[in-house]
Design brief:
The protein is 59% helix and 9% strand. By secondary structure, the protein is α/β, with parallel strands linked by helices.
Length: 510
């Protein structure tokens, strides 16, 4: 357990200036997003900021890798909207805490490794869909409420908003060509903030979303009826929230691994994320998970250590305690511009360049995952569907590879040398290879280049032996690997075959 309490890697040289500036930039982009999702779900605004602080500080210290930023993410909050409407905020806190417990268990039992089952086309679809969601969500800031109705900005407010967003994007694009000493995103926010204040420009600010003033997160035991009935209500939401959080978190962790060329710990991230959500449930937070947009802001600002995440979390808490009057005047246009650049940077543009080189089924999977992500905002469902389709395609392609080389030796024994795996999808093609009626009395099936993989394969071999037995013929199986022989031994009540071995044949270790 020592690795879970190793807060910093002292062998890594930390650029404190870069880490602090990156943390400040992340905090500026996380505040409006956390507020927006809290309000969308019907939570008190501070519930979103408390979640950003708790998720940020816990995962920054104990999480699976440096550079990864967690907060009150929309992916997990969306899951809880229905529970909020049907049972209220107290049940939400209980569900968040239970989700945390489930996530900790996943980490302790080292189940985070199953993220490796996500194919690259699914990753492309996930990332591209998320980039489009980030971009589309920024368009909501170009709307205003008039007489209770949401309308698009028009006239001067629209031109001002668009101009300030364009200025922000321009600074983020151009400044790195001259210097990377200061994160371009932070410079853009400060410049636009200064222009708006200096010239007294009327535009949308953070205060137009909600107030960010408050105190320390209060300890609060969810006021619910602790019973089996309550568990039946909150468990489905907790399970879905925990799954969504881990899916998005582990995919984001893999993405950071690719960007930085380093390796994180998925199981450690699961434990840290679960612990943070458990605290959220008892400290008035809406829970969350790693946030890919803020993580990319962090990495683009040069952060490669844990310090930036700690600085971001403490900055959010400091703003809640004393800095709210200043931050509430921050123009939303600056934050929108930064997030638009994050969306552009998130999109896997290489997927367009290699699309004509990818198999058609991979293109279909990538596009489908992106569409589901965009349409349903359900990252876990999108990834699950993508993995299932990829697995089915793989099974189909593997099933087509099974073939048989046939010959009769000088003793009149017919040999079938099988190539390709024998499993549920290839059993029909396997059975079609044999000419039961015309084969001699003795048949040898050679599995040197094949493998009996599952119960369907055993059943296929059983059916084949029964067909030969009915007409007085005998089958021998040769060159079965150790695990294949074990499968047949365990199923000896339903199958009766003669297994023979060649003493010169060595079974390779799997």
């Amino acid at each position: 357990m020592k690795q879970y309490f190793n807060l910093f890697d002292f062998s890594q040289k930390v650029d404190y200036r870069t880490e602090i500036l990156a943390g400040l930039t992340v905090a500026m982009t996380m505040i409006p997003e956390s507020l927006s999702f809290a309000i969308l779900a019907g939570f008190p605004p501070l519930v979103g900021l408390y979640a950003a602080f708790i998720m940020g500080i816990v995962t920054a210290i104990f999480g699976g890798r440096p550079g990864l930023v967690s907060g009150g993410a929309g992916a997990t909050v969306i899951v809880l909207i229905a529970l909020m409407k049907s049972h209220g905020l107290e049940y939400v806190f209980a569900a968040v805490a239970l989700a945390g417990v489930l996530q900790v268990l996943v980490g302790l039992f080292k189940l985070g490794k199953f993220i490796r089952l996500v194919p690259q086309p699914v990753m492309y679809g996930f990332v591209n869909g998320l980039a489009i969601i980030i971009f589309m969500s920024q368009l909501e800031q170009f709307k205003t409420v008039v007489d209770g109705q949401t309308e698009w900005l028009s006239g001067t407010p629209l031109y001002v908003m668009a101009g300030l967003v364009a200025l922000t994007v321009g600074i983020v694009l151009i400044l790195p060509r001259f210097t990377k000493a200061i994160p371009a995103s932070l410079v853009a926010i400060l410049v636009v903030f200064g222009i708006v204040l200096g010239f007294g420009i009327e535009t949308k600010t953070v205060a137009d979303i909600a107030s960010v003033s408050g105190g320390l997160p209060p300890f609060h035991i969810p006021n619910i009826d602790w019973s089996w009935t309550t568990l039946q209500v909150i468990f489905p939401y907790a399970l879905i929230m925990g799954s969504v959080g881990l899916t998005e978190g582990l995919l984001t962790l893999n993405l950071v691994d690719e960007i930085t060329g380093t390796k994180g710990s998925g199981n450690r991230e699961c434990i840290a994320q679960g612990g943070a959500n458990l605290l959220n449930g008892f400290f008035f937070g809406m829970g969350g998970c790693p946030m890919i947009a803020q993580t990319l802001v962090n990495l683009s600002a040069g952060s490669r250590a844990r310090l930036s995440g700690i600085v971001a979390a403490l900055t959010i808490l400091l703003i809640v305690l004393v800095g709210a009057p200043v931050i509430e005047q921050l123009p939303m246009a600056a934050l929108v511009g930064v997030m638009i650049m994050v969306a552009i940077g998130t999109f896997e543009w290489i997927s367009f360049r290699i699309i004509n080189k990818m198999p058609k089924q991979d293109i279909f999977v990538g596009v489908l995952v992106a569409v589901i992500t965009i349409m349903l905002h359900n990252l876990a469902l999108a990834v699950l569907i993508g993995v299932i389709i990829s697995a089915l395609v793989f099974a189909w392609e593997s099933a087509k590879r099974i073939r048989a080389k046939k010959y009769v030796d000088d003793k009149g024994v017919k040999h079938y040398e099988i190539y390709g795996p024998l499993f549920f999808a290839s059993t029909t093609a396997f059975l079609d290879k044999f000419d039961v009626a015309n084969d001699p009395l003795e048949v040898i099936i050679d599995f040197r280049e094949s493998k009996i993989a599952d119960m369907s394969a055993i059943d296929a071999v059983n059916k084949l032996t029964e067909r030969y037995a009915k007409i007085g013929k005998k089958i021998h199986l040769r060159h079965l690997s150790t695990d294949c022989r074990l499968l047949l031994h365990n199923a000896d009540e339903i199958i009766d075959v003669n297994i023979i071995e060649d003493p010169t044949y060595k079974v390779a270790n799997d």
